[in-house]
Amino acid sequence: MFRKLARLLKINRRLHRENENVLRVKLRTDQLRAERTRFAMQVLTVLFGAAVVIFLGWRGVDWAVREFVTENPAFATKKIDLQTDGVLTAEALRKWARVRVGENLMSLDLSLIKRDLELVPLIQSAAVERVLPDTLRIRVTERVPVAQVAVARPDASGRYTTVIHLLDATGFVMLPPDRTMVADPTALQMDWLPELRGVNDVDLKLGRQVESAQVRSALRLLGRYERSVMFGRADIRRVDVTSAEILTATTSAGSEITFASQRDFDTQLRRWRAVQDVFTQRGKVIRTFDVSISDYLPTVLVDANALPPPPAKPVKPAPYRRKNA
Up-side HSE of residue 278: CA atoms within 13 Å toward CB? Predict the structure, then answer.
């Protein structure tokens, strides 16, 4: 009996110790959970406080910017200083820029104004800046046409009409300005521009550069011609780009000069000048001349007295003369 009683006491002591261990573990777990909960609440409090501070700061900055800058009457646009180096009017430029007097100068998106202007094919580049406190300054560089292409396009009635496309020196395609866009009516006269013939209509995409190698060669020829020894001695009125290797230029006097499209134009133009000077002294006029061949000079001549005088050279409008000066 004493043995049973000792065994029971021993069992009771063991159970007591186990219960104490369980209580200690439970106590530590509860304490750890409570500490984690307090820490989480502290973190959330700090984050919430920071969010409130940031929100109030942002709203405060936004209010200050609107109150003192973007909605401040002191920054209202009173003057739009528009200047261009070409033929377009300030009214047309202001319409394309989509800006008005009275708008807040600081709230204007200058990059958007620049983009809208440069989307106009007639405009090469634009510079836009604020001049505090009340002036918007816009400077425009226009594209200068160097050649024209006549294209037959169907109209609303189904009939075909001739539409003139202009090309600048880089082959950029544009339409001529209309009367509402220019201050000087002479800027609408395009008969001074040489005509390119044989151009594929598919190559003419408004607002984009021509990809045809022959058209680009013809534009280079016209550019070199205006800076060559032949400028003023002959007037190139047409350039045929039909052939793949040659360009045929026709002058106002009816002379047809054949150039190699992939060779140095300066050399070919000097050859043309040298031969023309010789035959002019002899009273002869070149009818056809192939300057692309360097070994010999295939030339057809006519007597100068047998030909009618060439028509007067079309005058380049004053705005374009100023720009090319």
Answer: 8
Q: What is the pLDDT of residues 239-285, one digit of tens each?
A: 999 998 999 999 998 999 999 998 899 999 999 998 888 888 888 88
Q: Which amino acid is at 294?
A: S
Condensed to tens digits (0 to 9), the pLDDT of residues 284-302 reads 888 999 998 876 667 665 6
Q: In the structure encoding, which two tokens stand for residue 238, read together?
A: 């047409």
User: What is the helix (H) or strand (E) element at residue 81, kind and residue range?
Assistant: strand 79-84
Q: Which of 229, 194, 205, 218 is nearest to 316 (CA)?
A: 194
Handedness of CA 90, 92, 97, 100 (dihedral sign): positive
Whole-number mean pLDDT of the chain? 83
Is residue 119 within 8 Å of 143, Cβ to Cβ? no
pLDDT digits (tens, 9 = 90+) for 158-184: 788 899 999 999 999 999 999 999 988
CB atoms within 10 A of CB 163: 14
Name the helix (H) or strand (E) containing 173: strand 173-174
- For residue 143 the two structure tokens come to 């594209």
Contact 197, 241 (CB under 8 A): yes
